[in-house]
Amino acid sequence: MSPAPAVIVTGAAGGIGAALVEVFERAGWLVVSTDREALPRPRHVVADLAAFSDPQAADAQALVGALRQHAGGSLRAIVHNAAHQVVAPAADLRPSDWHETLAVNLLAPFWLSLAFLDELERNAGSVLAVSSIHERLTKPGFVAYATSKAALSGLVRALAVEWGGRVRCNAVCPAASATPMLLAGFTARPEAYRELESFHPAGRIGTPQDVAGAALFLCSDAAAFVTGACLDLSGGIGARLHDPA
Questions:
Q1: pLDDT in tens, the chain (245 residues)
Q2: This model's pTM is above 0.90
Q3: How far apart are CA 124 and CA 128, in angstroms?
Q4: Known catalytic residues?
């Protein structure tokens, strides 16, 4: 009997990360997770992905070793979900803001994918990045984050071409998602939350489960012909012209 396919999920402690873990496990995958936070899981590695600004650093190599050991040779997918977001005017961004944003949102997905390329190719696997609607549509205060997500989606498309039939590479690009963190910000402003929902042609904002379900599909054999795709998960808001005048 062949072992269950393994998937690495980064940023597993957040709302979308938790949904990814749940959905993949329910589908029978062996989930190896990583986050800055400790989780009560048998295959979880505590690590700071900012260390991947230098893949030769001891912390980065230790993370790869621990993830490889937990995956046990059956790695079929990596879901790059971890993200760092700084919301600030462009003039207020510090070098450290840029360094951490690019290290976590762009460099870690690249170096981790490269580190596990052989295993993924051997198991006919795939790389999936959780990008963002900010890859192409953004608003003031998101310069570093939007730049990193645009680069992440570009990385997915480039790797899909570079690695050809070896490993599939895709992204999902959600708009606002109803994570515990986002919902907490609207606790005292229910009318603002309803307004946000109304902006989406779908009539609601997305959920972590929406993202996780799309991720599971893109990592499955049902999506065997899908590579180089950046799937819009915006509930239609990405197609809407909002002109209050």
A1: 678 999 999 999 999 999 999 999 999 999 999 999 999 999 999 999 998 888 999 999 999 999 999 999 999 999 999 999 999 999 999 999 999 999 999 999 999 999 999 999 999 999 999 999 999 999 999 999 999 999 999 999 999 999 999 999 999 999 989 888 788 888 889 898 898 898 899 999 999 999 999 999 999 999 999 999 999 999 999 998 876 54
A2: yes
A3: 14
A4: 145
List beta partners, residue 206. 177
Take residue 12 and report the two structure tokens written for it: 């597993």
CA angle 118, 130, 48 (to 5 degrees): 70
Question: What tokens were used for 151?
Answer: 């680069």
Spell out the domains of the chain, with CATH numbers in brackets: 6-177+207-234 (3.40.50.720)
For 69, other C-beta atoms within 10 Å of its C-beta total 12
Closest CA to 220 of 108, 92, 120, 76: 76
DSSP state of 105: I
Quote the CA–CA distance of 231 and 214 in Å, as a whole number.
9
**d(Cα 181, Cα 163) in Å, to the nearest integer?**
36
Report the Cα–Cα distance between both ends of the chain, in Å, rounded. 63
Give the closest residue to 138 by CA, choosing from 176, 111, 92. 176
CB proximity list for 137: less than 8 A, separation 6 or greater: 238
